[in-house]
Design brief:
17% of the residues lie in helices and 34% in strands. The termini are far apart. By secondary structure, it is of the alpha+beta class. The longest helix has 18 residues. It has 3 helices and 8 strands, in the order αααββββββββ. It has 2 domains: 30 residues, no CATH class; 103 residues, Sandwich (Immunoglobulin-like). The strands form 2 sheets. Strands 3, 4, 5, 7 and 8 form a 5-stranded mixed β-sheet that branches. Strands 1-2-6 form a 3-stranded antiparallel β-sheet, with no helix packed on it.
Length: 163
């Protein structure tokens, strides 16, 4: 009878682990930590923060024929948020956002959304480039953290915005 209770208890514990999302691999160190994936906690000041880093992918090719450009990006060692101004420069972990410029136009837009994808539509057929710059809360570029993505919208691209 004792063995049956132990077996039942073991089954119940295993089931509750699955229900509550407890991963035994996470405890054994085989799964990346939350800090490794999500970055530092916002509750603790980070002394000597590592440099901010911007990673930008090429556009997803399957939508270019529709005139739609999706460019995925990610950052390291900076928290993307809609917080602006000199007072925010002293925050740790550091804050920032993106500046996005199309085809060397003299204007750009600020993207503090952190949704990881720049979404453009309606560009005319032909070659284009998007400049993506990682900036701090005071709109100053982090050194060396600007990327240019080049692509071509094919002739006859359908200007359908229902992507």
């Amino acid at each position: 009878m004792n063995k049956a209770r132990i077996t039942l208890l073991s089954v119940l514990m295993t089931g509750s682990s699955l229900i509550y999302g407890i991963d035994s691999n996470a405890q054994s160190g085989t799964v990346a930590s939350a800090k490794e994936i999500r970055g530092a906690t916002p509750y603790y000041e980070i002394p000597n923060e590592a440099p901010a880093k911007l990673i930008v992918d090429d556009p997803l090719p399957h939508l270019l024929a529709k005139g739609v450009v999706w460019i995925q990006w990610r950052v390291e060692n900076v928290h993307i948020a809609p917080v602006f101004g000199k007072a925010a420069l002293g925050v740790s972990p550091r804050l920032g956002h993106l500046h996005v410029q199309v085809d060397d136009l003299p204007w750009w837009w600020a993207d503090p959304s952190n949704i990881n994808t720049i979404d453009l539509a309606g560009l005319p057929p032909g070659p284009h480039k998007i400049k993506v710059t990682l900036v701090n809360a005071n709109h100053e570029a982090f050194p060396g953290q600007s990327r240019i993505v080049k692509f071509t919208i094919p002739e006859g691209a359908v200007s359908d915005h229902s992507h």
